[in-house]
Amino acid sequence: MPKHEMTWNLYDLVPKGGFDTLYAEIEADLAKYPAHYAACDPGMAPERFAEVIRFNEAVREKLNRLDGFADLSTSADLRDQRAKLLKSRCDDLQVKCVDAALPLRHWIKGLAAEGKQRLGDAAAARLFAGVPGLRYVLEYLRLSARHTLTQGEERIVTRKLISGAGALGELYDQICDGFVYDFRPRGRKPRRLATQEDVLRYIRSASASEREAAYRCLLSPYREHLGKLFTCYVALVKDWDNDAKLRSFASPIARRNFYNKVPDAAVEALLAVTADNAGLYQEFFRLKARLLKMKKLRRYDIYAPSGAPGPTLPLAEGVELVLDAFGGFAPGFAERARRIIAARHVDSHPRPGKRTGAFCAGIAPAVTPYVLLNYSGDSNAVSTLAHELGHGVHDLYAAAQSISAYGTPLPLAETASTLAEMVVFERLLARCRTDAARRALLLEKIGESYGTVMRQSYIVRFELEAHRRIAAGTTEDGLSRLWLELLREQFGGAVEVAEEFGSEWAYIPHIFKTPFYCYAYNFGELLSLSLYARYRQDGPRFVPRIEAILAAGSSRAPEDVLREAGIDLCSPSFWQGSFDVIGGWLAELKRLGRRGA
Ligand SMILES: [Zn+2]
């Protein structure tokens, strides 16, 4: 068990000093593509087709290891110039790999390719039978034919991606990573906070003036640099939307939905039902104001703790608690999480220069996933630990799939992580000895679920409208006004929103780098709630159903995988069912509130 700070061992990706060797090996592999491509023919033996596919997968695994090494090295120290150089070399190699595999992908999609007989449906079905684990992946590739450009155009797009959208995303990071935060709580000495994590800790402070000061200093550099950030955003939005149009998607969000492998109707049902339930959180915020003995909450206060802060857990204890809760839910969860820690694949604590936030990187089925945290020891940090280990657990369940079916489609990608948080939450709740402690935890949980469900859904609603307005012409102030309008709509008068929150949109990296991504959190949280509700009802015999969803990776359509667990994604009543779980927490909170706050 880790006693102190953990740092990760990246040499499981690429052996020490082996970067250049692996790089050269991939370059040599690229020269073998033409021979494989030459063998492709509708009449070829399925075994030979399988060999082509496995070759392509082997190259991808090597590239993922190399790129993962460069990427994780950069995340561990954003100022490490050597790591940045490795990353940029990987980007170049990535382009070469995409180029080399392009004719093959085109041919599999059934598109016209010079000197080749087109691959028809019947012949495709015969060849795909040679790689049974990848049938859905390959069929989906054929579906994407209608969103594919010509080979020449795809080549241009791949190159422009790195110098265009990719570079703008990096520029966004660089602008924001350079921010310093001047923290000025009323009546106290002002001080400069070095990292965003330091600032975010104060939005959960027990002191109202510290919370206000935290948001002020968090948003102020974004407001100051809003012009630059707006320029990045407009270019990225136009890039995304132009691409969507060129690829014949019905709308910008339809492009994301297609990549996510979810029907537009499921996302529409999700967003609509979520907006219908805005009143649930408004009621929560009114109740929270009463419990905090405030007339009305301000936007600064929505993450305010109730009562004394819970105990801070050193990393070792946090890990123990999470593993124990996982074990009580499903031994397979605990065992897999333990494997990640034992492999020394966790970078645990904040440091200057380290990437903020937290993530889990699943590189390849044969590689134990890597987890980056900025662990502080509060209950939120314990939740994040559970969340990211949950991602890793998911990846390890899917590790029996080959690399093309290993990554989970985005809406399912948050399933194990949010489920893991839920399990840890129940454990923490069960450990509470007093009503006050239960109340504090429920307040925190519903508040967090606001952040994952309602807030994310409104971020996507903002994007839907922002993409429309940018196409028609708008300004940074126009976007800030839109953001404020939507904030006021979701809080419906239950929370007072100060004007300065207008520039908050610029603080959300996802809308810059992965448009419409945020509904995945909403999707994942509600899906996990419903799975967890089923688990509570059916007991441990429901666990294998959950494990089957995780183990499927992306080898099958999410809709089909979920249908087997009794879930219909396009049904509003399914989504409403998850809100009933949140409603149950709220009812419990009200009951505790009546017993004396
Ligand atoms: Zn996540």
Quick tags:
Butyryl-CoA Dehydrogenase, subunit A, domain 3, 597 residues, mainly alpha, 25 helices, single chain, binds zinc ion
Structural account:
With 597 residues, the chain is mainly alpha-helical. It has helices at residues 19-30, 33-38, 46-76, 81-109, 121-128, 135-143, 151-177, 196-202, 208-224, 226-246, 252-260, 264-276, 278-291, 315-329, 331-342, 379-397, 410-413, 415-431, 435-472, 476-491, 509-513, 519-538, 543-551, 558-564, 572-594; strands at 181-183, 191-193, 297-298, 346-347, 359-361, 370-372, 495-496. It has a three-stranded mixed sheet with strand order 4-6-5, sandwiched between helices. The longest helix is centred in the C-terminal third of the chain and has 38 residues, at 435-472. The chain is globular and about 75 Å long. Bound molecules: zinc ion. Zinc ion is lined by residues 387, 391, 414, 417. The site of zinc ion has 4 residues, from helix 16.
Task: Report on the biggest sheet.
Answer: 3 strands, mixed
Radius of gyration: 24 Å
Broad CATH class of the domain at 250-308 and 410-597 = Mainly Alpha
CATH evolutionary superfamily of the domain at 250-308 and 410-597: Oligoendopeptidase f, C-terminal domain
- The residue ranges in which pLDDT falls below 50 over 5 or more consecutive positions are none
Write the CATH fold name of the domain at 250-308 and 410-597: Neurolysin, domain 3
Q: How helical, in percent, are the residues? A: 55-70%
**Number of distinct beta strands:** 7
Beta-strand residue percentage:
under 5%
Bound compounds = zinc ion
